[in-house]
Amino acid sequence: MSDRTPAPSPARRTVLRGSLAASTAALTVGGGAFASPALALSGRPSAAWGVQTGDVTAHSGLVWVRSDRPARMIVETSSGESFRRVRRHYGPLLGPGTDFTGTTALRGLPAGEQVHYRVTLADPDDPRRTGEPVTGTFRTAPERRRDGVRFLWSGDIAGQGWGINPDIGGFRAYEEMRRLDPDFFLCSGDTIYADGVIQPSVTLPDGRIWRNVTTPEKSKVAETLDEYRGNFRYNLLDHNVRAFNAQVPSIVQWDDHEVRNNWYPGQILDDPRYTEKDVDVLAARASRAFGEYFPVSTLHARGAERRMHRVVRYGPLLDVFVLDMRSYRNANSPGRQADDTTGILGAEQLEWLKRELSRSRAVWKVIAADMPLGLVVTDGATDFEAVAQGDPGAPLGRELQIAELLRFIKHRRITGTLWLTADVHYTSAQHYAPERAAFQDFAPFWEFVSGPLAAGGFPANRLDGTFGPERVFVRAPERANLSPMESPQYFGEVDIDGGSGELTVRLRAEGGTVLFSKVLQPGRVGQ
């Protein structure tokens, strides 16, 4: 392992050249114009919104694309960027029912190899009429432990009114992450801000002007299905995001802002910005749009199997347990219940997580949480939004469910658990230990926070002592909602060495700085 920044391979750089067409459309940016994806060949289907891959394992993965009109999706894969020998995968017919998006499953891929792919869109009435192919690449998960794994994580994108600013190069952190060439990116939620309006310009406290790319769907809070879709499209206007997506596969989860701030099932809104007051209606529309715009394996299942939470198995060193801390939670409250079986995960998801953790044979088990455990996140004057509720005593409310999970991990002697999250718009490292805690029937563990990736920065939240957290490191602004021009954006890096099995976490700031680093040893119940 090393702290040096790895350079992307020439093959990866080359395969991305020319993959995105030049624009002929324009969007408002302050008082000027900004190029958006446009047609590659007039009158033929265009895939100029780029490509994405998701939930990649040793032998499978998903490829995503969006067309500008009805089209048949065709994916060709090859071991080389020349595409001399290809394997063809026929995908779905793209139409208005999915906002012209589609996902194709790739199976039978070679493990631990670089896979090059190109997506072609064909006219469904005349397959000879095709658009310009869009290319991408990704690495499949290794089957051999000695190969090692390295990935990045962050969240919180286009929030608090800070959108795509062409004056600073758009979402610059994406380009920095792309150059690190990770195996994959874990997006820890708040992938959009459906409740966050993007104004053409914002005046900063020092008098500078922040200019935003704007679209009609970002001019109000999202309520309709088309408005939610427009929020997901907005991020794809950024050339950094499209280039990153074409090179780095993602594992994506959601949190609250994909629907609206601090939402929970059954909530009825008292917000004059919304004509639709039933959050369950909004959440259903947002979930549909999320599944259309991200390649998530379980969101393409049917019926009861369609869900956000899942396990992505990334070789013998790593399993990623993707949680949904939003869809099954109870209502936000003061959190003082002495009995709470619903909690933040719901009873069924908790049992699923315990079962899958006990089955895992991976050296490291990353629990991808869209909210932190011991950081106090409020919702109004009396209610709480995350797990902690500010009382450092015995577990109450949602803490009861987490206590049950931590006790289970200890008594089943499940090794190598690690919690990663975003949500609070700063970066920090917390170590949880029973000797500091009110609840002590658990093994020590670490929780690492990173973000925002392209949103406002906020001061650090206070800690709740129930599970004995110690803030080992924190970097956060002194005041609320600092723009990306005033405060760096943050993302984290996890590097698992194939020889020793050691896991190194690095908390990074935009600009190439490693702020904090921690090495964890494999095979331990607690760290």
UniProtKB/TrEMBL annotation:
InterPro entries: Metallo-depent_PP-like, PhoD-like_MPP, PhoD-like_sf, PhoD_N, Phospholipid_Metab_Enz, TAT_signal. It comes from the Bacteria. Residues 157-507 form the PhoD-like phosphatase metallophosphatase domain. Residues 50-140 form the Phospholipase D N-terminal domain. SUPFAM superfamilies: Metallo-dependent phosphatases (SSF56300). This is Alkaline phosphatase. It comes from Streptomyces showdoensis. The lineage of its organism: Bacteria, Bacillati, Actinomycetota, Actinomycetes, Kitasatosporales.
